[in-house]
């Protein structure tokens, strides 16, 4: 499996493409600039089979319908944010005056529980990592030492918790219980900023002192 980080939109939200040798791929958090993302996929002759959402804030879902409709593929989201795709108040797009309200169609698949998931030939584990938002999830590809953490954990920082449904104590618990328990060599692919590792964040992240 290979992965590629693609910063999109005014907030430079990281979208990720994970691909197998047969050119099938999954798209995580197509946040904005749908045409740019589609051009890249077509240029590389990739075959998308699913869209996974770490959470449903506006900067992570802006191009969901554009990409979904282009490739006729399903969207996966956690049950606690099932209604956020179609509600600008919940997904936050109504809070930012410079951004048009975002309304996306409902997801085809609702993530009900943590645990193993298989989509096509991709196998990974789902962790529920709330705190930044109630339905935040992380996708762990154990075989490749990669976790896609959304806006839970960043290089040297953690997700904001001042948006609706945010909870700072819950976020710290999520990071401690679900993410810092992974092997230290695990790459952390965050929703914003550069790639880091679990070990690096355990050693130097000022928000995680004591863990």
TrEMBL record:
Residues 12-192 form the Metallo-beta-lactamase domain. SMART domains: Lactamase_B. Its cofactor is Zn(2+). PANTHER family: HYDROXYACYLGLUTATHIONE HYDROLASE GLOC. This is Metallo-beta-lactamase domain-containing protein. InterPro entries: MBL_Glyoxalase_II (IPR051453), Metallo-B-lactamas (IPR001279), RibonucZ/Hydroxyglut_hydro (IPR036866). Signal peptide: none annotated. Keywords: Hydrolase, Metal-binding, Zinc. GO terms for molecular function: hydrolase activity; metal ion binding. SUPFAM superfamilies: Metallo-hydrolase/oxidoreductase.
